Amino acid sequence: MKTIVLLIVFPFFGILQAQEGSSFSFNHLALSVKNLDESAAFYKEVLGLQEITNKAKIEGIRWFSFGEGKELHLISILKEPVTINKAVHFALNTSNFDAFVKRLEEKHISYSDWPGTPNKINIRADGIKQIFFQDPNGYWIEVNSVAK
Q1: Which position has the higher pLDDT, 35 or 148?
Q2: Where is the VOC domain (predicted)?
Q3: The domain 25-82: what is its CATH number?
Q4: C-alpha atoms less than 13 angstroms from C-alpha of 22 in its C-beta half-sphere
Q5: pLDDT at 18 over 50
């Protein structure tokens, strides 16, 4: 009986060891989009992201840089529906939080606090300001004032 347990546990021990020794860093976020040009314009104009070379060289995909080797990939070639809710979002921080909120207002882009109150800034218990808004495909984006 002990031999069977060891044979079952031993392979998993190796997997756990490999995971503990692994080192990861964030590389990119990929979003499935309906209209590639509209989505690309949004991320360029609203977030000011720079378009970079699509190294995959697949049509229907465009890449953007968040800086520091972090990327956003917009993919329009898959047509499966995506279920979206506010809990599934990506968050960006900026040292120019108030200026960014003003930019959204100038572009007539609605934002809200976490509960969903329109045009209201959420202030977390730790004093960090945050807002939530959606891109043209309905993906939720958080922008906050966390210092880098």
Answers
A1: 35
A2: 25-146
A3: 3.10.180.10
A4: 8
A5: no
- Contacting residues for 49 by C-beta, under 8 A, at least 6 apart: 43, 64, 65, 66, 72
Strands ordered across the beta sheet of 140-144: 89-93, 140-144, 129-134, 122-123
Q: For residue 14, what is the enclosing H or E element? A: helix 2-21
Amino acid of residue 76: S
Retrieve residue 108's tokens: 């007539």
Stretch(es) of the chain classified as CATH 3.10.180.10: 25-82, 84-148
* Helices within 46-107 (DSSP H only): 97-106
Q: Rounded CA gap, 55 and 53, in Å?
A: 6
| Residue type for position 126 | D
Q: Residue 128 is encoded by which pair of tokens?
A: 């960090």
Residue 76 CB neighbour total at 10 angstroms: 20
Higher per-residue pLDDT: 112 or 6: 112
**Confidence category of residue 128, pLDDT binned at 50, 70, 90:** very high
CATH class of the 84-148 domain in this structure: alpha beta
